[in-house]
Design the sequence.
């Protein structure tokens, strides 16, 4: 019988290899798979490329993964936060490579990877500094029906770490409120998607009409206790 | 003549009154967030938040914060009856696909023809961050900017050409400022309104650009 549940976080992340590209869900305080990130730090894979909207807050979670020196490069849209000092220091001292991507391009490049799209033209970023490749050369552009677009390529990942709310043995998932954010799209974009859930239910207990991520996109499900998410990460003055 | 600048709240009221009932609106981080406080009772404006919320409501009462329910600025919010949650690629499809009626953004500079610079000052050593600004700027049916007209040094933030790194080209249709409201178009600036006591000549001097009426 198909059973994607694994017993522990350690087991879930055991085979992440050095040099992997790892998508990590979450936006601000919502939907960050902290248990999986801690598990990945302990597991010890290095030279990672991390894909996340932000670049860590304070000293825990993604910031701790960066601080441990396990990350070579981060692909994100908004690294600067009031308490992103771990990232700031690594970036300023050249110990961490940054690929800054407009948030919608980030989501769509991940979606393209999951949906088998080879590349796509987007109006976002046209004429800006972010329509350049990491080496400074301009990205390909095209006029389509009188509007200018930039060619963007998919972001493929080896592993996606996401936080969901409820899940079952087939890997079907639901989410909670705005903690959904990047979870469903990242689940499609990685070879191996690992999801934490706060409730593991029998097959059939999730309403099929309300399953957000169908199990085909999920490789492993781990049950973790619910902990209150805290405040933080927002700047009072933007 | 003497004149009084609009306060931030007066400016927020001014922006809110131009939003038609039933509009889907995204309010950027910072000053635009204030507009939410001035959408009066009885009006139906549906607020979008890039992290997957439509029908976003005001901040919760102290003690009721839910950190799975936050806005783009990572502050706790609430969900109005009828609100919906969705994932990031749907959220940005709403922007890029032209489904949002209006977005209101802050700015470092706006050009007379509607170019926007609001994500980076381009200073060496600064940590860049763009978030959803570029998607919003070019995606919404109308992009409005809300800002003080002048920098703290007294330089106009409305310019012939932006010197800061661009967020989008020709995307801003209106600029609401503490001294006046403008339309931006390929033909340049057009005056919508100005504070009492400020004459057009004086305004043109402050901005340093011709303003059509």
Sequence:
């Amino acid at each position: 019988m198909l059973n994607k549940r694994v017993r522990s976080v350690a087991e879930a992340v055991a085979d992440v290899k050095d040099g992997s590209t790892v998508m990590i869900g979450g936006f601000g305080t919502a939907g960050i798979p902290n248990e999986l990130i801690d598990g990945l730090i302990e597991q010890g894979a290095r030279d990672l490329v991390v894909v996340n909207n932000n670049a860590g807050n304070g000293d825990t979670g993604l910031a701790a993964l960066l601080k441990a020196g396990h990350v070579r490069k981060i692909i994100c849209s908004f690294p600067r936060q009031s308490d992103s000092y771990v990232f700031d220091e690594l970036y300023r001292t050249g110990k961490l490579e940054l690929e800054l991507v407009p948030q919608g391009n980030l989501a769509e490049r991940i979606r393209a990877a999951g949906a088998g799209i080879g590349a796509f033209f987007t109006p976002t970023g046209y004429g800006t500094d972010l329509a350049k490749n990491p080496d400074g050369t301009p990205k390909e552009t095209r006029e389509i029906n009188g509007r200018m677009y930039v060619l963007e390529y998919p972001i493929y990942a080896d592993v996606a770490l996401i936080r969901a709310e409820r899940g079952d043995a087939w890997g079907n998932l639901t989410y909670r409120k705005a903690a959904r954010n990047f979870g469903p799209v990242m689940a499609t974009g990685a070879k191996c998607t690992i999801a934490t859930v706060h409730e593991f239910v029998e097959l059939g207990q999730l309403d099929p009409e309300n399953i957000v991520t169908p199990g085909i996109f999920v490789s492993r499900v781990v049950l973790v206790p619910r902990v209150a998410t805290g405040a933080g990460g927002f700047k009072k003055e933007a | 003549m003497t004149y009084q600048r609009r306060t931030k709240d007066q400016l927020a009221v001014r922006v809110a009154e131009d939003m038609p009932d039933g509009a889907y609106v995204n309010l950027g981080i910072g000053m635009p967030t204030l507009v939410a406080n001035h959408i009066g009772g009885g009006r139906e404006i549906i607020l979008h938040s890039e992290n997957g919320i439509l029908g976003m409501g005001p901040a919760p009462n102290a003690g009721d914060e839910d950190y799975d329910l936050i806005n783009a600025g990572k502050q706790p919010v609430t969900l109005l009856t009828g609100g919906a949650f969705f994932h990031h690629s749907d959220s940005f499809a709403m922007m890029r696909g032209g489904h949002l009626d209006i977005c209101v953004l802050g700015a470092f500079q706006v050009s007379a023809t509607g170019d926007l610079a609001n994500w980076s000052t381009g200073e060496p050593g600064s940590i860049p961050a763009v978030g959803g600004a570029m998607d919003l700027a070019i995606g919404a049916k109308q992009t409005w900017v809300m800002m003080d007209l002048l920098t703290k040094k007294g330089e106009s933030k409305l310019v012939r050409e932006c010197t800061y790194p661009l967020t989008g080209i020709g995307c801003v249709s209106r600029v609401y400022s503490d001294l006046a409201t403008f339309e931006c178009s390929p033909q340049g600036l057009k005056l919508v309104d100005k504070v009492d006591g400020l004459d057009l000549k004086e305004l043109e001097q402050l901005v340093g650009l011709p303003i059509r009426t």
Q: What stands out?
A: Residues 9-118+154-223 of chain A form a domain with the Glutaconate Coenzyme A-transferase fold (CATH 3.40.1080.10). Chain A touches chain B through 56 residues (CB under 8 Å). Helices of chain A lie at 9-13, 34-43, 62-67, 85-92, 103-115, 183-189.
